[in-house]
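Write out this protein's structure.
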Amino acid sequence: MRVTSAFNRLLGLSGITVVDVSFVGTSAVYVDVALRRRRLVCPLCPFSTRARYDTRPVTSTWRHLDFGRWQVLVRARLRRLTCPEHGVRVEAIPFARTRSGFTRDFEDLVAYLATKTDKTTITRLSRVDWDTVGRICERVVADGLDPTRLDGLVNIGVDEVSWRRHHNYLTLVADHTGKKIVWGAPGKDTATLDTFFAELGDQRAAQVEAVSMDMGAAFNRSVRENAPQAVICIDPFHAVQLVTDALDVVRRAAWNELRALPDQDAAKRFKGARWALLKRPENLTDDQSATLRRLRNRGGQVWRAYALKEAFRAIFAGDLDPASVVQLLDRWCSKASRSRLDPFVKVAKTIRKFREGILAAIRLGVNNARAEGLNNHVRLITRRAYGFHSAEAALALVMLTCGPIELQLPHERAPA
C-alpha cells in the first residue's frame, strides 16, 4: 500500500484525497490533501457555486490528531468564491470549522477533555495553550448546540454563578423538564435576562408557566416585564439560607460579647461552635454533637436562634402537604417577629414579602434544585480548570458540560 493511500485511511477525514506526505524532523508529519468536491461552499451560509473567485496564494494548515509523538498537520490550497450575501470568502472545508486551525476531530477531543479533566492535563496532552482550549470550546458549542433548545419551555429556572473572582458572573437558564442549561450570558442584572427573553421571542415567552429564582430583584423585574403570565417561584433553599445566615449573625454577636470578657477561653470554646450550629444535626460529628448539647443546656439567644433555624428548615423537609406548609410558615414568621432577635425579625419581613413565591414553589413543585445542582457542577469545572480568560470561554465550557449538546468523539462517528 502506498503512503498516500495509508494516510487516506488513517486520517479518516471526509471529502479529501491525500496527495503527498512528508516527515519534518522527528516530531511533525505534513499531509498535503486536495478537496474532492468541485462546488465551492460559503462558510457562512448554504450558498454554493462552481465559479471560483481565485485560489489563495498561501497554503492553509490544520492540526489533526497526533500519531503517537508525531504532530499531524494537514495542508491544502483553498479557493475563494463570491457569495451574494457575504462577498468574497474562502471556501468551507468538510473536516474543519470556519476560521479554525484545527480539524473537527482534534477540536472535539479537546472539548471533551475540557469537560472531564484539568487545565494542566489538557495542555500537556494536546500541546496547545489554555486560551486556545477556550476558543476551541466556543467553536464546538457554536457548531453543535441544539438550535431548538428554546422551543417548548414551560418551567424554567434562573440563577447566577460566579466563574471568576471580583464579581464576574454568568446568568444561566435551566429547563426543568429537559434538565439542561439552555441559555447563558455574562452578567446578572435585569438587562442580562431581558436578552434571554428577546432571544426567546414573545410567542415562546407566552408559553412559560413558572420561573424559579432566588429573591433578587433583577430577575424578578425581568420576568414580570417579559412573561407576566408566569408564576414566580422562590426556591425554599434560598429562604433557608437566609435563616441560616441570620443564625450566624446571632452567633457572631454572642462570640464578640464573650471576647470582651476577661475569660478568653470561653470565647475560644464558643468559636468552635460555628459548624455545630450551622450544619444539619444528622451530619454532626461526635464532638460537634457534644458542643450542641452544651449550647442547649446553656440556653440564651444563640440556642433560641438555632431552634428557629431548625424549625424553619423542617417546614421544607418535603414531608408536608402545601396546606400544612402555609400554616407552619405563617406561624414561624409570627414567632420570629416576636423573638427579639433583630436578624430574625428582619428575615421574617423578607419571608413575608416573598411568601407567595415560596408557597408557589411548594405548590407547583418547581424550584431551583436542578439549577443549583448544575451550578455546583459549573463551580467544580471552574475550580478544576483554575480559571478562565473570558466569559465566553467559561460559558462555552458550561454549555458543553450541562447544555443540550451531543459531543461525539472521533472514534464514535461513522468512518468517512
